[in-house]
Amino acid sequence: MEQSEGNTRLKAARIAAGYRTQEAFASALGVGIRQVRRWESADPPWPRADVQQQLVALLGQDMESLGFTRPAGVPQPRDSQARTLPRAQGMVSVPVPGLSLQPASVAADFADITRRHRRLYWTVAPATLHPAAVAHANLGCALLQETAGATRRTVAAALAETYLLAGRIEFFDIQQPDAARDTWMRALQAAGQADDQLLGAAILAHTAFIPGWVGQREEAAERMVAARTYARRGPASASLLAWLDAVEAECETRCGNTRTALNLLRHAEEVLAAGSEHASPEWLDWFSPVRLAAFKGNTQLKAGHLPQARETLLQVLDDLQPSEDKQRTVILGDLAAVEAADRNPEAACSYAVAALDQLSTTWYATGMDRIREVRRALAPWQHERCVRDLDNRLYGWETTVSALGR
């Protein structure tokens, strides 16, 4: 049983840093539990220089604040104040601990809000959720200055996920790729502070979308190599590995390499079928076998495999959950594109109008992009009544203002 008296300062700092037991603290430091008990006694011995550095780094306080008495003749170290990591060009630096620590409970509280934002993403308007996510990220940066040890790593992981979410909104929902690039770089820095390899893999894969969507294949491929490297370092689940294949396939499709993309998607299906002993991270809520099929249907469309694309996409539409309205818009847009490519303008317009109906409820810029592509493909039939009816919907007051405003 742990002591109720003695060096209460060290004990309080240990608990605030997320180490609720002396055993956990000893393990983090790589020392024996008897050593920790001596430090938390009424007369704690002065630790060795290397252990002092570990204590200060782990708990975010200097030795005197941790209840130790500096022996005569031992100088005070110069760098005992709060520091920040070196700032990279165009990047907000993630702070390191100061001298005043929050209780360990702040980590769970901060992560809980991150978790709720993750769920809200699927239904709340992007313009509403994005400011809340950014404000939450600012809070996380402040908390990093006031936490240490296991508590700080938990905050940093939640901060990385928050930045990842904000970047997803910027890229997919409101089409601000430059802002998404900066935000995802902050996410990667926070994931590094948490030493979360899988989050790092997810963030890096997201950054591959930026060059991939504009045809910069080599840069996208380089990002994916980095993402797969990070995934190998952690206990990657089958879903995460399959999603990496899907992301690379999306980039290859955008770059015109549909054969390579289809091979990647086939491999992703095999990975999911084989499964894995590792569970998927809680934050990996944007991918599933249905989402993989959606990737496949779009690639089949771009490859000109229209019957296969139609069959795949119709099955995806049937399998989507009621909460997946954003993805539903994309699938309806792709089905419209299939019919336009198959020279069936009435069916294409019907799917496009259904997609617009969905957009009026849940805005998604990626979905609107699909509809605009379909309208361009319908140019040969622009005098047909069905196309004119689509134009009336596409360029109605509400839709036009929403599109231009975003």
Tell me about this structure.
- This protein is an all-alpha fold.
- It has a domain at 8-59.
- It contains 19 helices and no strands.
- α5 packs antiparallel against α6 (126-144), α8 packs antiparallel against α9 and α11 runs parallel beside α13 (289-302).
**Rg, Cα atoms, Å:** 26 Å
Could you say which structural class the secondary elements and strand pairing correspond to?
A: mainly alpha
Q: What best-fitting shape do the alpha-carbon axes yield?
A: elongated
Strand content: under 5%
Low-confidence stretches: 79-93
Question: What's the short version?
Answer:
With 406 residues, the protein is mainly alpha-helical. The protein has 19 helices and no strands.
Describe the SSE topology.
Layout: H1 8-16, H2 22-29, H3 33-39, H4 49-59, H5 105-120, H6 126-144, H7 149-173, H8 177-194, H9 197-212, H10 217-233, H11 238-254, H12 258-274, H13 289-302, H14 306-319, H15 325-341, H16 345-361, H17 365-377, H18 385-394, H19 397-405
Annotation keywords:
406 residues; mainly alpha
